[in-house]
Give the backbone structure.
Amino acid sequence: MSYDLLKTKNLTKVFESGFLRKTYIKAVDNVNIFLKEGEVVSLAGQSGSGKTTLAKMILRVLEPTSGEIIFKDKNIWRDLKGLKDLKWYWRNVHIIFQNPFSNFNPFYKVDRTLQQALELIGIDPDSHEGKQLIREALEVVGLRPDETLGKYPHQLSGGQLQRIMIARAWIIKPKLLLADEPVSMLDVSTRGKILELFLKLRDEQKTTVLFITHDFGLAYAVSDRVMIMYRGKIIEEGTPDEIFFNPKHKYTKELIESVPMLYRKWKFEL
Ligand SMILES: Nc1ncnc2c1ncn2[C@@H]1O[C@H](COP(=O)(O)OP(=O)(O)O)[C@@H](O)[C@H]1O
Ligand SMILES: [Mg+2]
């Protein structure tokens, strides 16, 4: 039996903005979720529903306003202390960010990103093994090492940078991969290949993937389970078929309706 790898309890994030007249946005509102070992779970919801905020709290880079996140019996905002604990956590929980452009340092060649991944798992980037792993990782995501290595971020496209982030995740092989709109900049043929890679990580490494998307069609295609997020809340949860054929909320119906007809037909023929 697979066990709960991560749980959240009444997780909430309120953003405060404005100087004289303060306004508050409840980006994540009392969320209770669980993620089991070795499953692909989609978090689907329209833009602004709080998906990225939830992912950032789970990654432990954005502090919750209230509530708890439990990873392997550790309360990550209470029990992890010091660099050693954090490194342990980030080796176990990794993210592919939504916007690749803002997540590469423009002054470093993209190689640096992959070398840092090797350092995190204790492999010397200059060793033969390290160099070999980098080439392998690039090939796995369909990039040619000679066209990618030695380049600065501005010399590559959004789709290429997105694939480098996926290559980095492939090197680290975390227990939990938070994939925040990871294929948004890829064309359809590459997209399929990357989605298969997530399933492969699940099947071969027992990786848990939280697949974040605003596209219900993608959620339906890749996941074991789907959670629907709306205005900071998880409004329903179930298998892709349960949600697709028997959506309970008006909002979920709208999300399903927005999947193009042709695409839906294609899904059913799979
Ligand atoms: N750093 C921030 N400061 C203030 N408001 C924010 C911040 N980050 C996100 N928000 C707001 O929180 C809500 C949820 O945003 P986000 O988590 O990015 O949604 P999603 O990823 O589903 O598109 C939005 O209303 C957004 O404007
Ligand atoms: Mg987002």
